[in-house]
Amino acid sequence: MIEILTPAELARARDTGALVADILETLRGRSTAGTNLLDIDRWAQEMILGAGARSCYVDYAPSFGRGPFGHYVCTAVNDAVLHGMPHDYALADGDLLTLDLAVSLGGVAADSAVSFVVGGSEPSESVAMSVAMIEATERALSAGIAAAGPGARLGDVSHAIGSVLGEAGYSINTEFGGHGIGSTMHQDPHVANTGRPGRGYRLRPGLLLALEPWVMADTARLVTDPDGWTLRSATGCRTAHSEHTIAVTDDGAEILTLPTVTRTSRAS
Q: For substrate, which residues are the binding ones (predicted)?
C-alpha cells in the first residue's frame, strides 16, 4: 500500500522526523571510544519513551529477520551495514559506526541513519576509506532528494542515487534500499539504490519516502550474522549508510529528519 498523507498527518510527520534526528544527534555525540553498543541502545530507549513515542524496531519481525528485533536502535560497526543488532561491544577509536533509528509519534513514523568515524583517530587508510564512503552516501542521498519532486518517477530517484555511488566506484546491492513510510515504518514503494530514469511510480505531494543509499568498500554481497539480523559485507570490508525521511511537496521534497538546530538555522 502507498499512503498519501494529509496536511495534518504531514505536520505530525515533521514532529516525528525532528525527534528521530535529535535522538540520532544526541547518540552520535555520546558515541565515543569505550562506549558500549548496549548503552547506546539504552539511551535510545530512554529518549524515545521519554518523548511519548514508540520504537518501530522492538517488535519488528519481518520475513528476513529472526524473531522480533528487540532493540531500539540499529548499531552497525565497520563491516556491518544494515540491521546491526546492539550487543556487548565497546567502540574503539577509528571504528566506523552507523546508527539507524525509526520511531513513530502521533501515528506517523520517520526513519533516518547516519554513519561516522568514532573518536579523533590519527589519519589511516581505513579512516580515509571510511570518510570517502560516508561522503559518497551523503552525496547520493542529496542527489536522490533533489530528484524527488512532484511528477518525478521513482526511477529518477534511484538513478540519481545510483549514478553518484557508481561514479564513486562502488558496487550497488539491490536487495535492500529505501521505502515508503507513513503510518508504518516499511511500506511500498521500494526505492532501489540504482535504476532507470523515467520508470516506476510517479511521485505525488504527500508521499513520504525513506531514502537510504549504502555501500560496501569492495563488494556488493551481504552475509548475515548468527543473530539473524546484522548484515555485513561478505569480504569483511568497511561499509557506510546514510538515510533521511522526506516528504514530496508541491514544489520539491522536504527533509523531515533534520535536527532541530539545523531546522532553526535554515529557517533564520
A: 83, 186
